[in-house]
Design goal:
The protein is α/β, with parallel strands linked by helices. The chain contains 10 helices and 15 strands. The structure holds NADP nicotinamide-adenine-dinucleotide phosphate. InterPro entries: ADH-like_C (IPR013149), ADH_N_2 (IPR041694), ER (IPR020843), GroES-like_sf (IPR011032), MDR_fam (IPR045010), NAD(P)-bd_dom_sf (IPR036291).
């Protein structure tokens, strides 16, 4: 019998939160085979698929930095995959690669969309294959460029990172520590705050669900904020504007608190501090820095190898079928560090 491949397709556009069993549909299709490959293509078997807050935005039919996922299309997602067959010089069968192959078990990708893992010194850094989606993947790169190119923290400055225990935030916060800044992270649980303080060495970690959060935030920023790396938006962004130093840099990376909201809310009370405190507020998309990925990855890998960067990952088991609920959980803070789904244990033998 032909090998089957399970895939997650968009069934309908959610209005608010993703609804398990409604937003997506699981479908089994005949897996493509080596015989289907054209010149320059690779047949890939997914090992891990990335779950990202941005996925919620890709479900809305509106202008953005990438086209929306269409109804019936396989949900877009970055993945770590193993090459099953290849008609490309870029990778051979058995090689590990990364590719935006979507949430599916098996797929064919053009060589231009495939990056061999061998470009990264995983072995020399004590790195593991899952780092390709985290600290040595898109979220690590996002943290690197946002912090070094836009935030540009200097020794002694105060840096605040929201969603600091997440994949992007945790790396961004540590990069600011490496630069010699005083770093404050916000996160949604005591366990996350302990990790930030005790293992990542942040100066202060604040639980935004604490009833005294506002007072604690103010007390933690006596010299105001020089760099705010924002992953959350909404109320936390407004609070950071209220505590911004003159000429502060606001790195607008994401606004997860608003992604599911049908009516968006943003900075209100303190917005005009942008003017009174001469704040530079800049949004960015990691792809803007694509030509510099190589340099950034080298630096991230070096820090990882030197033990200057710590990372965690939260791996959801259960394969493609578990991805939908995993994505919903991302918006409930279920992860520490990078969230991904194990689609296939890399120790298992592959099968064409
Ligand atoms: N600009 C770019 O190119 C780019 C690239 C990648 C990611 N991003 C953005 O970076 C941010 C982080 O992404 P990531 O992939 O690293 O995810 P992540 O931080 O690993 O996971 C998301 C975290 O957000 C927090 N969160 C969820 N709902 C929240 C809410 N209502 N209020 C406050 N915190 C909430 C949760 O942690 P808590 O327990 O702390 O709530 C959750 O663990 C997102 O905004 C994403 O869109 C931007």
């Amino acid at each position: 019998m032909a090998r089957q491949s399970l895939q997650l397709e968009l069934a309908e556009r959610p209005k608010g939160e993703i609804e398990v069993g409604k937003t997506f549909r699981l479908r089994k299709v005949d897996a493509p085979t080596e015989a289907d490959l054209k010149e320059g293509e690779l047949l890939l078997e997914c090992l891990y698929v990335s779950l990202d807050p941005a996925m919620r935005g890709w479900l809305d039919d509106r202008r953005s930095y990438v086209p929306p996922v269409q109804i019936g299309e396989v949900m877009r997602a970055g993945a770590i995959a193993r090459v099953l067959a290849s008609r490309s010089a870029k990778a051979k069968p058995g090689d590990i690669v990364t590719a935006t192959m979507g949430i599916r078990e098996v797929g064919i990708m053009p060589e231009a969309a495939v990056e061999p893992a061998s470009r990264l010194p995983l072995d020399r850094t004590g790195g593991k294959v899952t780092d390709l989606l985290g600290v040595l993947g898109m979220t690590g790169l996002t943290a690197y460029f946002g912090m070094t190119k836009i935030g540009e923290p200097k020794a002694g400055e105060t840096v605040v990172v929201s969603a600091a225990a997440g994949a992007t935030g945790s790396v961004a916060a540590q990069i600011a520590k490496i630069a010699g800044a005083r770093v404050i992270g916000t996160a949604g649980s005591e366990e996350k705050c302990r990790w930030l303080k005790e293992e990542l060495g942040l100066d202060v970690a604040l639980n935004y669900k604490d009833p005294d959060f506002k007072e604690k935030f103010k007390a933690a920023t006596p010299n105001y904020i020089d760099v705010f790396f924002d992953n959350v938006g909404g109320e936390q962004l407004d609070m950071a504007l209220g505590r911004a130093n003159k000429f502060a840099r606001f790195v607008m990376c994401g606004g997860i608190s608003q992604y599911n909201a049908e009516t968006k809310s943003g900075p209100t009370r303190n917005f005009f501090n942008v003017i009174s405190q001469r704040i530079k507020m800049q949004g960015f998309i990691v792809f803007d820095f694509a030509t510099e990925y190589g340099t950034a990855l080298k630096q991230l890998a070096q820090w990882l190898g030197e033990g200057k960067l710590q990372r965690k990952e939260t791996i959801v088991r259960g394969g493609v079928a578990a991805a939908e609920e995993g994505l919903q959980q991302l918006f409930r803070g279920a992860n520490i560090g990078k969230l991904m789904v194990e689609v296939k244990n890399p120790e298992e033998v592959s099968r064409l």
